[in-house]
Design a protein that fits this description.
By secondary structure, the protein is of the alpha+beta class. The protein contains 30 helices and 7 strands. It folds into 3 domains: 134 residues; 229 residues; 130 residues.
Length: 626
């Protein structure tokens, strides 16, 4: 049924309807009920939890107004003195006597008395000869004291009691929490107090009652939106993961404030915000762009560790834009020879490799670091510093020669997997480390590798590549695949080839001249030797083709469909794809490349004329065999 929520409509969130369930009362508190409210945020509607104070009769309201007394503002600070006074009481009678002398019992006096009563009951003083007080009488006094605390206008007193490390307060914490939660819904807490209350609930969230309260705090943050500033926004972001139903509403509020405050947020706060997105696994590109802009603006104020934290976080959330790339470039230009951290270099190159950033200034800057610090870089970092250059097809003869010598001199210190990755990186760019390759194929090394391991697949690819490309290589060193293992074609490639199949048939001249997903036999079973589309003369299909005939292969066009991740940021193919094209040409075939995105655009727009022209141009301009 409909009911009054007693909550002012929060800014940017329009309250449409609230409803209250009278049978869903908060335990042991007849003063308010659980409720829900429908809110609108942009085009979205959401039902969120809320609490609603129950209406009282006029007599009760007048009595409460008469009996409720405001605690002095300085009372909270006097609590240690009050505690010390009550510690002088050795018996319950002394506590009650002290209370009777007070002209006014303030909330902190009530708390001090309750703490001492609880302590004396658990640890009676040996000299206490006072007869036991009636349990009913004592409970009545404690109940009165509790009401004094509950009715204080100073919410901070209740928050202090909640956070006090004292067993005396435990029996009353549920009631205190209910009272604070109600005050949140009535907009009586400031932002700092709401945060402290939520921190208490989060700390004790293993208790279901406390856990359920967290989601009801959204209204407090919305009501106190004007108090969110560059210092507090990160604190609320840190609390975000603990919301459930109301998380989206709080996040939308925080993102609006981030757009307003980003230029004034300090590094620790911005990292906390980015880390929250990482923890939440939340994809919010608009907010990421704001943080990337902050990074570019403040890059001059960062040190190596700070930049590493930001770059690592962006890498983990898989976000990149031009501002981050420019920030890294600016940092390398500013620092130059002052760069000291090998972990930062690894982080930057890992970021470049993940997003295929082929930025000359960044890559050259990291190479310069290797020239200066190569002998001091930990061995287990070397692969992570070298491999990105091969993957990005960024070749520097002097650099790779120096790397090859360093790895060869320190061969025994490297793992077999790291050595294999470094060798592959060099081969991608047509650099052939003959001595290193010969070392990895010794019987001692091979005896420790299982046939189906990823390492063996790398070594088989190295053996095949060196056999095809390096005349001085006395390979193959490994047995050829007697039975080719299946290599699955990427589903996107398979689907687009199916969509353009009729167009390919028209260009090829019939189905007898066209084959798809052909794995070159007698080589290693790797996607490097998978031909997406093969155009060939009649009678030379994949099932009957004589792969040993050089003349037959001269008449073949191997068509490769390159996915977006096959290209670097400057449209250069990545190292593995460059090697793939090179090897197929070395095997005697012409090689044509098609862009998946271009094919998809033509099919999506139903531009068959443009598709036919594009296919014909690419195939006619196929690279000749080597």
């Amino acid at each position: 049924m409909s009911g009054n929520t007693n909550v002012p409509p929060p800014s940017n969130v329009y309250c449409l309807l609230s409803r209250c369930f009278s049978d869903d009362k908060i335990e042991k508190d007849p003063e308010y009920n659980c409720s829900t409210i429908i809110v609108e945020n942009g085009p979205h509607l959401q039902e969120l939890p809320l609490i609603v104070r129950r209406a009282k009769d006029l007599t009760g309201i007048r009595e409460e107004k008469t009996n409720t007394e405001r605690a002095p503002q300085h009372d909270t600070h006097n609590y240690p003195l009050i505690q010390a006074e009550f510690k002088e009481c050795l018996a319950l009678r002394d506590v009650f006597s002290l209370l009777s002398k007070c002209t006014k019992i303030t909330p902190n006096i009530a708390l001090g008395a309750m703490e001492r009563i609880y302590h004396l009951e658990k640890n009676p003083h040996p000299l206490d000869t006072t007869p036991n007080y009636s349990s009913v009488a004592k409970d009545a006094i404690v109940e009165k004291l509790l009401k004094v605390v509950m009715k204080t206008e100073e919410t901070q007193t209740i928050l202090n009691a909640l956070n006090a490390i004292s067993t005396f307060i435990e029996p009353y914490k549920y009631e205190f929490c209910d009272e604070v939660l109600l005050r949140v819904s009535e907009n009586k807490l400031n932002l700092d107090q709401i945060c402290k209350f939520m921190e208490f609930l989060v700390k004790n969230r293993s208790n279901q009652k406390y856990s359920e309260m967290i989601d009801k705090l959204w209204v407090g943050f919305v009501d106190r939106e004007h108090e969110i500033n560059e210092d507090t926004i990160s604190k609320i972001f840190k609390l975000l993961p603990h919301f459930r139903e109301s998380k989206k509403t709080v996040l939308n509020l925080l993102e609006q404030k981030l757009l307003e405050l980003w230029c004034r947020v300090k590094l620790p706060g911005m990292y906390e915000i980015l880390n929250t997105y990482l923890q939440e696994n939340s994809w919010r590109p608009d907010s990421f762009a704001i943080i990337a802009g902050w990074l570019y603006t403040n890059i001059h104020a960062l040190d190596d560790d700070s930049l590493l934290e930001m770059v690592t976080a962006f890498t983990k959330i898989k976000y990149n834009d031009g501002q981050i790339e420019k920030s890294i470039e600016r940092y390398i230009r500013l620092k130059g020879s002052k760069l000291e951290s090998p972990i930062l270099i690894v982080g930057i190159l890992n970021y470049c490799m993940q997003f295929r950033i082929r930025n000359v200034h960044i890559l050259n800057g990291c190479q310069e670091y290797y020239w200066r610090k190569g002998n001091y870089i930990p061995i287990n970092f070397i692969k992570s510093i070298i491999f990105p250059y091969g993957f990005l097809y960024y070749y520097n003869s002097n650099y790779f020669t120096a790397v090859e010598k360093f790895v060869d001199d320190n061969y025994e210190k490297f793992s077999a997997d790291d050595i294999s990755s470094i060798i592959l990186a060099l081969i991608y760019t047509c650099h052939y480390p003959l001595q290193l390759v010969q070392k990895i194929f010794t019987p001692e090394r091979l005896s420790n590798i299982t046939d189906d391991s990823l390492l063996m697949r790398k070594m088989t690819l190295i053996d095949t590549a060196m056999t095809l490309e390096c005349k001085e290589y006395l390979g193959p060193m490994l047995p050829k695949d007697q039975w080719s293992k299946s290599v699955s074609q990427d589903g996107r490639v398979r689907k687009i080839v199916t969509l353009i199949h009729e167009d390919l048939l028209e260009i090829a001249g019939g189905s007898e001249r066209l084959s798809v997903s052909v794995l070159v036999p007698h080589l290693c079973s790797d996607e490097a030797y998978l031909i997406d589309i093969m155009l060939h003369p009649v009678g030379l299909g994949s099932n009957t083709f004589n792969w040993k005939s050089k003349c037959a292969k001269d008449e073949i066009v191997a068509v490769l469909v390159h996915l977006p991740e096959h290209y670097c940021s400057d449209d250069q193919l990545v190292g593995p794809q460059e090697m793939r094209k090179r090897h197929l040409r070395l095997l005697g075939m012409k090689v044509a490349s098609l862009k998946y995105t271009t094919l998809y655009d033509f099919k999506s727009s139903k531009n068959n004329v443009g598709l036919q022209k594009y296919l014909k141009e690419c195939i006619d301009n196929a690279s000749l065999s080597l």
